[in-house]
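sry for the spam today, last one i promise. struct tokens for design, 256 residues
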């Protein structure tokens, strides 16, 4: 646990030397996305499709989970593998680096979430979250499923680094729409619902809005689906990572 703690601190600090500036940059990314979606909803006159309640909180409930999921995938997929120089130190294992990358994302995203909500509540308008524990549990669900997908990509990366990079980019870009952060599952037709309900993040975001707003009760999503999918992907990813660790070599990444 001590090793994971120090590796987590290292994974957080290596993105930015100044911890405060790193937090501010992460917050600004969230604020910019929230502002962009607010303008888009306003220009396209889509505010009527939102749930009854605070409109910005509705947007943020999708943005927070989307960013947590996407950043978890990126951090874990790019974690130090068995061929990393860090593995020359005896106590280090890939389990430690994977755990550190995932926990680093959870820490910075949770801190950003609390800071943004606090500033919005104090400086603009008081907010009310119907079930804060359930809403944060869905943040954890999006983090868990993102980390599980990241482990799977980490295991496959040494075998086909370019293909895995393309798959990661495609999945992240597809989630701009497929995550369901711009609409409610209850408002979709069965034909449209079939295009999105495969995505564990879609279920997590819809359930988060059910926990956040008193006037919204999700009928077409559940929290069990992302949990089971995340566990299945994690087990496959860990088996793949174990297999890759037996055969991976530094020479695979050599350039002539």
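last one done:
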């Amino acid at each position: 646990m001590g090793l994971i703690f120090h590796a987590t601190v290292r994974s957080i600090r290596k993105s930015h030397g100044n911890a405060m500036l790193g937090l501010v940059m992460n917050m600004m990314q969230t604020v910019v996305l929230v502002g962009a979606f607010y303008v888009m909803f306003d220009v396209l006159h889509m505010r009527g499709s939102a749930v009854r309640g605070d409109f910005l909180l509705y947007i943020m409930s999708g943005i927070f989970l989307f960013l947590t999921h996407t950043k978890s995938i990126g951090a874990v997929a790019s974690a130090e593998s068995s061929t990393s120089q860090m593995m020359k130190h005896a106590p280090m294992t890939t389990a430690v680096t994977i755990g550190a990358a995932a926990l680093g994302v959870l820490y910075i995203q949770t801190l950003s979430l609390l800071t943004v909500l606090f500033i919005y509540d104090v400086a603009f308008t008081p907010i009310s979250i119907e079930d804060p524990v359930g809403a944060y549990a869905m943040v954890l669900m999006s983090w868990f499923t993102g980390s599980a997908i990241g482990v799977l990509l980490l295991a496959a990366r040494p075998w086909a680094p370019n293909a895995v990079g393309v798959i990661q980019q495609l999945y992240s870009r597809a989630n701009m729409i497929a995550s369901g952060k711009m609409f409610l599952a209850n408002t979709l037709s069965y034909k449209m619902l079939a295009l999105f309900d495969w995505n564990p993040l879609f279920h997590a975001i819809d359930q988060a809005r059910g926990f956040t707003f008193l006037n919204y009760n999700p009928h077409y999503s559940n929290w069990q689906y992302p949990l089971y999918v995340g566990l299945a992907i994690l087990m496959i990813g860990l088996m793949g990572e174990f297999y890759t660790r037996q055969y991976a070599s530094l020479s695979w990444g050599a350039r002539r």
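The chain has a mean pLDDT of 82. ok im logging off now
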